[in-house]
Amino acid sequence: MATMREDVDRIVISERTLAERVADMAREIAGGYPDTGEGITIVTILAGSLVFLSDLIRRLPLRMRIGLITVSSYAGKTTLSSGATFESAILPDLCNRHVLIVDDILETGGTLRLVQSQVGAAGPRSVKTAVLLRKTSRAPKDLKVDYVGFDIDDLFVVGYGLDYDGLYRNLPYIAVLKTELYQAGRHV
Ligand code: 5GP
Ligand code: MG
Prior knowledge:
Layout: E1 8-13, H1 15-31, E2 40-46, H2 50-57, E3 64-72, E4 85-90, E5 98-106, H3 110-120, E6 126-135, E7 147-152, E8 174-177
Parallel strand pairs: 2-3, 2-5, 5-6, 6-7
Antiparallel strand pairs: 1-8, 3-4
Helix pairs in contact: 1-2
Magnesium ion is lined by residues 45, 48, 103-104, 111.
């Protein structure tokens, strides 16, 4: 049987390293909300963040509500971002709430800027941002992110929620695919 693992060129971050860092991030995040008895509201950006989110929230002892936003930036078989556009949202009331935005990966920052401004317009009490991955050489220096899991090189990665053309989200680690699989855009 041909499995998706045959498409992987190399593992960039292992399952174990992900689990350890996500547990650390949960401790850092919980430590950043010492007095929020009423809890926080997480706004997560789908679909790439879903695996990170599910691991992170089960490590967070805070009371929380969860909202979902869909933003698209990569269409189909490209690995070049086309700029973030808002698609849809299922959000609880953010007015006067402590909001934590959760995203999978920060590249140009277009996605986070869009979501930060949308959340900011709803009148929250505070806004913080957590991302699992940040592409150091591409992320703008002026974009405020409170919690970062890993700084990585400028590679197109898949797995642990991240897709290429809709596939590979269920790989349990972060990986780079074999070069010949990337059909358009930048090759890694
Ligand atoms: P930005 O808006 O910061 O340029 O890009 C952020 C979004 O682009 C992420 O939320 C993610 O959906 C997508 N993205 C950026 N880099 C990668 C990558 O290496 N792999 C995958 N699968 N998606 C990426
Ligand atoms: Mg995304």
